[in-house]
Design brief:
The chain has about 375 residues and is an alpha/beta fold. The chain is built from 15 helices and 16 strands. The strands form 4 sheets. The protein has a 7-stranded mixed sheet. Helix 1 runs parallel beside helix 15. The mean pLDDT is about 95. The protein binds flavin-adenine dinucleotide (FAD) and uridine-5'-diphosphate. The site of uridine-5'-diphosphate has 13 residues, from helix 6 and helix 7.
Length: about 375
């Protein structure tokens, strides 16, 4: 008998949730990760008593009750509600686009005034479409919110984040953001939202409790040719193109790097997330990590704070793959790799990298809960 039923490559939310279910089903799992820690992108480092989201701000949000019940059965969540602020050349605007933003931009006071203003702002773009669907992010944004918001809050930020002109990006990216005619700065429309109390490491720790793990272990260096001798099945959550040795060419990714520092003040920017939406500022946003988990007086009980500037760049080999680039070339390429993956009968490909999909955490967990423990 082989030592394991499953070798699970990647200890992020997909790998960890799958391992949790497999263990409950009585299966023996080994989870490996090439990073020096477990937890994938939700891993937090502890700096000055603050949980620092080392791979970017992670806010859990979902309307999927099954997922919410599942995660809250493992750990309690706090009441954090994401309400980022945008800084455009020193002017501050509330996000997502709502009555506060419209009042700040145009001085409008009522939903009726705001709607009239937006209709005026998007008239030109709608006329240019002449009834057809928006074909790219720029057309979509102009039709949704019009030219002032596009110019101040979307265009330059998006081009910094994606390194591409808004006309070359898919429309769906901007449809993630709500547009509301109420004074509500909640960035998400979901029914449930929060951060695990005591941080994400507690959540991934619970998922991986009692499961054998190895960090600093790269599948391609240690198991690629030999995994069948240690396990019956493989769950692979790394990049799909790499699994197939880049046979059809490399998929493009966006990567993000972080400049993190400790500031000698209890409250640096008054919010967890401040987006810098003009192109003059080289980073896309500044995260102040304590605000995810410390509220009211607790912010001041810790005299220090930790902030991270976020820089977006094109992925090059050796960097971390973060966001799939869902443009036409990459979608076609990813589909070819998915067809190869479907033929690997003893291997399950799951998660953001292995499916090459722009998944949030909750859909990743939903998928890992839904797939059969095969
Ligand atoms: P990952 O967490 O990436 O885990 C994959 C793991 O596989 C990694 O630990 C990696 O080291 C390991 N691995 C890869 N290749 C190998 C190999 N060869 N050998 C061994 N191990 C390997 N979602 C939200 O819901 N809310 C947010 O606010 C949010 N913010 C985000 C911000 C940023 C900057 C990014 C990039 C993503 C954000 N997400 C957010 C998405 C979230 O990170 C993902 O949905 C989730 O982490 C996906 O989990 P995963 O298990 O698929 O992948
Ligand atoms: N976006 C923008 N301005 C902002 C915030 C977001 O134009 O201040 C756009 C940008 O194109 C981004 C998309 O909206 O890629 C989705 O934003 P979200 O914050 O959901 O992206 P994330 O970085 O969390 O994946």
């Amino acid at each position: 008998m082989k030592p394991y039923d499953y070798l699970i490559v990647g200890s992020g939310l997909f790998g960890a949730t799958f391992a949790y279910r497999a263990r409950q089903a009585g299966k023996r799992c080994l989870v490996i990760d090439k990073r020096p820690h477990l937890g994938g992108n939700v891993y937090c480092a502890d700096i000055e008593g603050i949980h620092v989201h080392q791979y970017g701000a992670h806010i859990f949000h979902t309307s999927d009750k099954t997922v919410w019940d599942f995660v809250t059965s493992l750990v309690p969540f706090n009441r954090y509600t994401n309400s980022p602020v945008a800084n455009y050349r020193g002017e501050l605007y509330n996000l997502p686009f709502n009555m506060n933003t419209f009042a700040e931009l145009w001085g409008v006071r009522t939903p009726e005034e705001a709607k009239a203003k937006i209709d005026e702002q998007r008239a030109e773009a709608l006329a240019a479409l002449d009834g057809r669907e928006p074909a790219n992010l720029e057309e979509q944004a102009l039709c949704l919110v019009g030219k002032d918001i596009f110019c101040k809050l979307i265009k330059e930020y998006t081009e910094k984040q994606w390194g591409r002109d808004c006309k070359e990006l898919p429309a769906f990216i901007i449809r993630r953001l709500p547009v509301r005619f109420v004074f509500d700065n909640n960035y998400f429309n979901d029914a449930y939202q929060g951060i695990p109390i005591d941080g994400y490491n507690v959540l991934t720790g619970k998922l991986l409790e009692g499961i054998e793990t190895r960090t600093g272990c790269d599948f391609f260096k240690e198991y690629k040719d030999s995994w069948r001798s240690v396990a019956d099945r493989l769950v692979y959550t790394g990049p799909i193109d790499e699994y197939f040795d880049f046979r059809f060419g490399r998929l493009d990714w966006r990567t993000v790097s972080f400049r993190t520092r400790v500031e000698d003040t209890p409250n640096y920017q008054g919010n967890a997330v401040v987006n810098y939406t003009s192109r003059e500022v080289p980073y896309t946003r500044i995260i102040e990590h304590k605000h995810f988990e410390m509220f009211g007086q607790a912010v001041y009980d810790n005299p220090k704070t930790v902030i991270s500037e976020e820089y977006s760049a094109e992925y090059k080999p050796g960097m971390e793959q973060f966001y799939p680039v869902n443009d036409a070339r990459n979608n076609v390429l990813a589909e070819r790799y998915r067809a190869l993956a479907a033929e690997e009968k003893d291997v399950l490909f799951g998660g953001r990298l292995a499916e090459y999909r722009y998944y949030d955490m909750a859909p990743v967990i939903a998928r890992a809960l839904a797939v059969a423990v095969f």
